[in-house]
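Input record (one chain):
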Amino acid sequence: RHEEAIAEYRKSIEVGMTPERCKDWSPRGSLWELQKSLVALARFDEALAVMDEYLSHAKSDDDHRGIAIAHKIRGDISREADRHEEAIAEYRKSIEVGMTPERCKDWSPRGSLWELQKSLVALARFDEALAVMDEYLSHAKSDDDHRGIAIAHKIRGDISREADRHEEAIAEYRKSIEVGMTPERCKDWSPR
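The corresponding structure, as predicted from the sequence alone:
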């Protein structure tokens, strides 16, 4: 019932912003949910416009984390619409905003890096995708995220396999299993 949800989210935004923005309230929550319903209906241009509005509010709130997240979601929408070059630009903007001048509190570039490699693989830009996963791996190590390290090696294996670099893929899968199982199996991770 996405059409009904869309109408309700739009009403929420209208009420919250009329005659001016309510004190201690932001339309970003409703905008976030609105774009999800629009994407579910493959109304990608409308969803991007909604995220532009979200981005505008994040900027006016001086919320760098929110700005980084908005660009990541714009990337997700563009990737869903098979606009991979646009998605790549949005993911890179997300990382740039989220890491400048220093890493935003309660934010990690790994979500944007993860999605960025998907668009690069879709365009058969395998070396770039592997470099992105190296960056992901670096952040997983600095976050001391053993599970994230194991997953990064698995994804590096997937990319290598997709690029017909099977020996590299095998080495990455073995590294993933080694990291994921040492000194014991990582929580919420499986070698399958």
